[in-house]
Amino acid sequence: MNTFLETEEQIVRYLKTVYDPEIPVNIYDLGLIYKVDLQDDGNLAIDMTLTAPNCPAADFLVEDVRQKMQAVEGVKNVIVNLVFEPEWNKDMMSEEAKLELGFL
What we know:
By secondary structure, the protein is α+β, with helices and mostly antiparallel strands. It has 4 helices and 3 strands; from the N terminus they run ααββαβα. About 35% of the residues lie in helices and about 15% in strands. A 3-stranded mixed beta sheet has the order 1-2-3. β1 and β2 (about 45-50) form a beta hairpin. The longest helix is centred in the middle third of the chain and has 13 residues, at about 60-70. The protein is globular. The N and C termini lie far apart (about 40 Å). The relative contact order is 0.22.
């Protein structure tokens, strides 16, 4: 059985395998994950956003996150909330993402 910290690390690793089909950087490094709330009972709530509110890949991304989080040991129930406050901007990206996309 994973410890709580190991489970959180695995959640981040799995989030880093989710990619917007139009952007060659994972959603975690893009800064699209606003909150990861793992409860002791295995309930996981994730607040995420999109690079644009009308993103054509929205349903795909939310479902990809949900499926990958359900594969994490210790996670029992997954709720993915799509939020648009605060509005995403490129300053939310990791340094690696900015480098990859030519913003540095």
